[in-house]
Amino acid sequence: MKKNLILALLLLTPALVMAKGPGKKIIKSMQTTEGIVSWQFLQNDYWLYWAGYKGLTAYDPYTGSAGGYFTRARLPVIYQEGFLWGGLFQGDSVETDTPRVGGIYYRIGTSPGGIIKIEDQLVVNEASKGIFKVHKNWLSLSDQYLKKELSIFLNMNEEDITDYMIEGLRDRYADHWKNWPVEWGAPFNDVNDNGIYDPIVDVQGYPVVEKGDYPGIAGADETMFMVVNDLNEANVRYLSGTPPIGLELQITLWNYQTNFLPLANAIFKRFVLVNKSDAVIDSMYIQHFVDPDIGYYKDDLVGCDSTLSLGFAYNGYAVDPEADKLGLIPPAIGLTLLQGPLVDAPGSTGMFNFKPVADSKNLKMTSFNALSRYHYPYGDPPMGDVTFALMTYNLMRGYLPTADIQHPAPFITGSGIRAGLPTKFPLSGDPVNDPEGMYGDVDGQGQNLEPGDRRFYINSGPFRMEPGDKQEFIFAWIGAQSNDHRQPISDIKDFAAIIQRFYENGFKDLDLMPATPQVKAEAIGQTVLLNWGWDTQSVEEIEQKVKNGFRFEGYNVYQLPDYYTTIEDPGAIKLATFDIDNNVKTIDGLKYDQEENRLIVSPLQVGRDSGIQRYFVVKRDSINRKPLYRGSTYYFAVTSYNYNPDLKNFPSLESNYQVIKVTIQGQKPGLRYQAEPEELIETTASQKTDVICQVKVVDPTLLTDHDYQISFTSVQDSLDPLHSKWFWHLKDLTSGQVLLKDIPVLIFEDEQNMADVVNDVAMADGLLVKVLAPAPGLKAIVQVADAEGPLKPDEYDEQGAPFQGNNVWHDPGSPNDENPFYISAGGGDGDLFSMTRNIENAREHDFEIRFTDQGGIFAWWYDANVYSEVPFEAWDVGPATYDDDSDDVRCLTGGYSGGGTVGIFDFAYTDPALGFPATDWIYIRVPINSRGSYETYYEDVTSGNYSYNWWSHSKEVLARIIICDMGGAGTLPPSGTVIRFVTKKGPTEDLTFNFQGPGKPEQSLALLKKDVEKINVFPNPYYAASSMEPDRFTHFVTFNHLPPHAIIRIFTLNGALVRKMEKRDDSQFFRWDLKNEKGWRVASGLYIVHIDMPELGKQKVLKLMVITGEEVLDYY
Q: Where does the UniProt annotation place the signal sequence (predicted)?
């Protein structure tokens, strides 16, 4: 009974009869309605916006004043607004030349309800009256959220809101969700896109979002709907002095609760006008009227931007008295027309009901008007007389509000270079960049009025409505706040451009927030493991989905002081950021500043191109700068964030998060992990390779003790963009299942660079796997033979030893050489890059320069058509197949003189690295086919013709090689000397890595019984207080290592029972609050604790010393 009474009170909220008129006199009369919801509001972080069931919006029924509030401080900014229409009613024998005007202004010309026809008469359908509201999260709205809404709705303090009231509001949300008036034009999410509302409902009849159509605007948090009409002739004449037309107006309002500022700062309005009469309305226009009051009502200015179909209002001075009371810099507001009337336009495409319509277009704002209450004779048109209709119709057409519609007078530009000229877009200048109106028409400048009580009007037309026609108009209110009273106008224009783009996309995919990471948390020893890579579906949703240009960029990990602290709180600490390595680090944008009470440009995210990691091991309490203590509880959060470089001021959004609560503990009773987090697992390669495969434990709870194998494939199709790219796959050899497939092999330039890509890895079965391949390059340049034959291991130096030779890169060759030499590179500073500029052509083959008696030829192809015989040859010896001559291919040798002695291979050049005499620059080219072979090259060069046909059939692999004379004898290495150039080896399809995962966690009843011996209580002794207690009123000791079920009895030394407690949960901890059965604090003394574990058949007895502290009262 009480619940029904409360719901009835909610339904019977006050209704408006008359609002502020032109003279600013407030006439307020409150009455109840016929048992229907008569008032509602939309709210988010920035807007509070009232609406009534008669069609009036931005009016507060409790104050009888402004009902459009903006900023978090809720500053009134819209005093009154309305929607008007006007057109020529064809067939009207009485007023053929007089437009009929109706709608909502300072007086309300509409009545609640939709129109139906009964016996050729238009009447109001009583069942359609009311204002309906749904919330997309209606099933999960918290009591606190509903309490806050009720405090506004009922004009009561939150503490006075009862549970019955909350339940009543929750029931109303359910009722509107179930009985959403689609038949009267209420919008719905058409999931199957068939144009019919066919929801799939649950057993109670409520539409299920996941299964089919459901109420509201797609993606909107709150949606409100009402339908009104103009059938009440008295109301229409009281407004405009003209008769009704027979129009129905369906009104939808919606908002978004989001961190994306252009949407969070907006309220959306949709009007659908339906001609229910039998007449044609010609030369029709619509008008959105606004009486803005940015705080105090006598100091405002207005303006427009015709390119954005935008009207805006802002404060005329830096300080507004009403805003100043709230500690605010005055904000600004703007109204943009997103969709105007739909008219014929062959070859164009318009929009209706969020869908494209061929051979049509939507008119934009076709004119803008600005008036002032004190602007005689062109102030507010007088209501209740046909003069209002004539003046308003002129305004709709972009003219001054005169009563002569046959000879209308234009608005005149008041300032700027077009001052004195007629215009349909007065005050279209730029108050931000041209505040004095030197170039454009700026309110308050030139001949324009000083700041005052302004109104503005957005108009669109003409269009024609046949009987039964519908027209749809969409507007958006936009608010902004910045560092002065004019700057918000720039933000509003930015917001409007972005919102226009979203509208053109049909308001699709407006849930721009990245998905929340699904985090598994585990206390393991003295660490906390946070793992959000275990759910591959969640990872894909976060990292792969693009939402209106927003792409995944990274993850943040936070520690929170307690469960209720947010990540924005100064007490929260960011532990780590893992972001994509793409040179996007610090992302700046507009952010709300609590101290300055406005938006400021500041870092939204700070990355470091770390690469992506999907787990984090917490090893320290960063808030208190202490170790993690057993028995203590800690709080964490993990978020994802995205990035859209096209949105300068709003480029990034951070996801919602779950607060993760973890209590530090040893291994749970009866449980044994077989590995520690971040423990490395040994892998075995099937062949010699430079590919690095590292496996380490991330989550010991998911280990399987299985055998695994990593294999490799590459894309062979030369037309594929991924041609020659390598991918790895992880197979569970024990189960035969492929766990990971087509994971790109990551490339590192050198050992130091590995740290930059270490985090871009994949996870499976609690193991983190990373596979890295080196970028193409040289691993070593070694001498493997001298005049006496192949070098012996004791002749290798330390750097050459792994490569079966002696390092000769900037280092002397074999100690057996009579004249020591080394290898360097010509040009620059003799660095290795000069030699390896085209090393990718080597295809991971190794190369040798062999000094032989027969030698070869050297052509100075970068100097002149000259060649000479030289005592060396160059060979491609295959991919480290040194003992297999079958794949050896002779290469082309030639290059550049370096020292200027073209045609003579000598030591005329000087090594730029170490300064010793050096040879001409040797270039090595490998044949592609027989037309680029050494034999073809030899014949062409020695013939003297130099056709160079072999050039395009061969590729450079090594360049600028110089042999440096360290001994000073001026001789080249002797015959038999072999210098080998060893390349870095990447994956092959024959390469595999095998490893065995650690054992899966062991859990048994036997272990659980064994762990009974570990049961303990701390602190013991208890001295008056504990560092774990949150305040001086809370006292407790903690038992640990307990099984899920335990019965704890506390006795005094003489055997008296003090307290009996029972534990039934999965935690190993249980707290005693040091109180007896009656709830009194126990006395100091020694207590005997008897712990019974019936399922285990075990008991444990402990002794506990308690020393209570002295109680001191603050007040007495």
A: 1-19
Cα(221)–Cα(151) distance, integer angstroms: 20
Cβ neighbour number for residue 645 with a 10 Å cutoff: 11
Instruction: Work out the burial of residue 963: count CB atoms within 10 Å of its CB; fewer than 13 is exposed, 13-18 middle, 19 or more buried.
Output: buried
Per DSSP bridges, beta strands 1085-1093 and 1098-1107 are: antiparallel
Q: Can you read off the two tokens belonging to residue 814?
A: 């074999």
Alpha-carbon 5 to chain mean position: 44
What are the tens digits of pLDDT across the range 139-174?
999 999 999 999 999 999 999 999 999 999 999 999
What are the φ and ψ backbone dihedral angles of 887, each rounded to 5 degrees?
-105, 10
- CATH fold match for the domains 520-669 and 1012-1107: yes
Domain extents in the chain:
2-504, 520-669, 680-774, 778-983, 1012-1107
Cis peptide before 207 (omega within 30 of 0): no
C-alpha to C-alpha distance for 157 and 860, rounded to whole angstroms: 93
Taking residues 203-207, what's their average pLDDT? Answer: 95
Name the residue type at position 595: E
Q: What is the pLDDT of residue 632?
A: 86
Give pLDDT tens digits for 750-800: 665 554 455 567 889 999 999 999 999 999 999 999 999 999 998 999 888
Residue the block writes with tokens 């809370």? 1034
Q: Give pTM, 2 decimals.
A: 0.74
Backbone region of residue 1078 per phi and psi (left: phi > 0; alpha: psi in -120 to 50; beta: other values): alpha
Q: What single letter denotes the amino acid at residue 673? A: Y
Strand 921-927 and strand 806-807: the pairing is unpaired
Report CA-CA distances (Å) from 654 to 502, 515, 567, 680, 958: 20, 9, 11, 33, 49
CB atoms within 10 A of CB 1051: 15
Is-contact 482 329, C-beta < 8 A? yes
d(CA 725, CA 760): 17
Q: What's the token pair of residue 731?
A: 């197979």
> What is the largest distance, in Å, between two alpha-carbon atoms of the chain?
122
- Supply the DSSP string of 808-824, one letter for each residue: -BTS---TT-SS-EEEE
Query: Residue 527, Cβ neighbours under 10 Å: how many?
Result: 17
Please report the sign of the dihedral spanned by the C-alpha atoms of residue 580, residue 581, residue 584, residue 586.
positive
For the record, the structure tokens of 48 come out as: 């509070």
**What CATH number belongs to 1012-1107?**
2.60.40.2550
* Inter-residue contact 514 to 538 (CB < 8 Å): no
CA 245 to chain centre: 48
Which CATH superfamily does the domain covering 520-669 fall into?
A: Immunoglobulins (2.60.40.10)
Residue with tokens 């290798």: 796
Tokens of 202: 């649950």
Nearest to 1058 by CA among 1037, 1044, 1040: 1037
- Distance from the first to the final alpha carbon of the chain: 44
Give the per-residue SS3 of 251-282: EEEEECCCCCHHHHCEEEEEEEEEECCCCCEE
- Going by C-alpha positions, the residue among 68, 80, 130, 131 that lies closest to residue 106 is 80
Reported as a single tens digit per residue, the pLDDT across 1032-1046 is: 788 899 998 899 999
Residue corresponding to tokens 């430079």: 690
Is the predicted pLDDT of residue 186 greater than 70, yes or no? yes
In the block, tokens 């660079």 appear at: 753
Question: Burial level of 283, CB count in 10 A (0-12/13-18/19+)?
Answer: middle
What are the tens digits of pLDDT across the range 571-598? 999 999 999 989 999 999 988 887 777 7
Helix, strand, coil share of the chain (percent; to 5): 15, 40, 45
